[in-house]
């Protein structure tokens, strides 16, 4: 069997597809690639490997027969076209036929192959599209451990492509300055003092309006975009700190850092670079919030980075505590400055006894590990009262303020001082001496 070149193959494909369309039938395209062919080549030498491929070609031709056609498409790749059903059993059968040992001049040689499959009309592509998709599936079969079959899934492929388009659009949003930061206050409920702001990203989409992070953060997961976004947020937050400082407003800002960004080997040097570009911002004004997830698998690297940030004077908090990968070991290993209890527990703590139990346990744990503790999702004064009574002083949530544009912050701070409800809670807390929270649960 001589190898078909691209033109011959595409003529063959076009004919086969035309026939499937005319007969209202199907066409299955199978790309078959010998596994570890380089190793076989090294072992048998060029001529030996050629003989093996010839023997394989012969075996495949005998196996398929009938209405099907198999051609060699160069190297160790074969393309099989069939109008038959080609179900999983038939394809598995083909793999086992391939793996039966060959006898080459007295030597027994065993090989395996990976099969990628596309099928018209499930996949409504042109002939060259069908071939490309079968080849894509074959690469997936290789990734899945070889000696296996992988079918091209048009629905899945469309999703992947749509995601790619959205990702490229989001990358442009970063470059075009379509992102903005909103700021949510964090307070000490025992004094009603504002202790800082969390920077939260929003996308000011020119057509779709202001988009919440839920609608775009998942796009960034596991991609380089996590780092680009994280760096943009850091740069923007530092610029904002500079602006506020000129207005006489000196409060820290917390920035959310994704695990993959934190684990990026360049993280610390690049952060140092950003800080050096803003020499008027002292490092105690920038805080980092890190979510605990399974992505923190490389605990040693995370530890090292957190250590280096703290050595620079930047505090680090564990964010959304209790939702992800939380374990006591994790908490013991990560020398974070603050724990943020996830809002899902805080929100329902007044009505759900098990959420209350979790909140109380985290308060106890924070005290034992001597970490500052902040409750997210504080929606009402009742929440605040219940938390304060249990020794959790720091809070953030809609009951205090929603995230706001940076221009709104100065005015909000003025109005905050006039909020009799929160000021009253603080007064009452000072009055009740026993409410003086233990040092571990205080703001530092
Ligand atoms: Mg956060």
Give a count of the beta strands, DSSP E runs of length 2 or more: 16
CATH topology of the largest domain: TIM Barrel
Are there runs of 5+ residues with pLDDT below 50, and where? 434-444
Proportion of beta-strand residues: 15-25%
Ligand roster: magnesium ion
Q: Tally the helices: what do you get?
A: 16
Distance between the termini: 77 Å
Order of strands in the sheet with the most strands?
8-9-11-12-13-14-15-16
Question: Quick one: CATH superfamily of the largest domain?
Answer: EAL domain
Helix amount, in percent? 40-55%
Number of domains: 2
Main CATH class of the largest domain: Alpha Beta
Averaging pLDDT over every residue, what do you get? 90
CATH architecture of the largest domain, by name, is Alpha-Beta Barrel
- Main β-sheet, in a few words? 8 strands, mixed, barrel
Task: Write down the overall geometry.
Answer: elongated
Q: How much is the radius of gyration in Å?
A: 31 Å
* Class based on secondary structure composition and strand pairing: alpha/beta
Domain EAL: 163-417
Domain GGDEF: 25-154
Protein name: Phytochrome-like protein cph2
Pfam families: EAL, GGDEF
Could you characterize what this model shows?
The protein has 444 residues and is α/β, with parallel strands linked by helices. It folds into 2 domains: 6-152, Alpha-Beta Plaits; 163-441, TIM Barrel, CATH 3.20.20. It has 16 helices and 16 strands. It has helices at residues 6-22, 37-64, 88-99, 127-143, 154-175, 217-220, 225-246, 259-262, 267-277, 299-311, 328-333, 343-347, 353-368, 381-389, 409-417, 420-431, and strands at 27-34, 69-72, 77-82, 102-104, 107-109, 113-120, 149-151, 179-188, 193-205, 209-211, 253-257, 286-291, 315-321, 338-341, 372-375, 394-395. An 8-stranded mixed beta barrel has the order 8-9-11-12-13-14-15-16, surrounded by 4 helices. A 5-stranded mixed beta sheet has the order 2-3-1-6-7. The chain has a two-stranded antiparallel ribbon with strand order 4-5. Helix 14 (381-389) links the parallel strand 15 and strand 16 (394-395). It is elongated and about 95 Å long. Mean pLDDT is 90; it is low at 434-444. It binds magnesium ion. The site of magnesium ion has 4 residues, from loops.
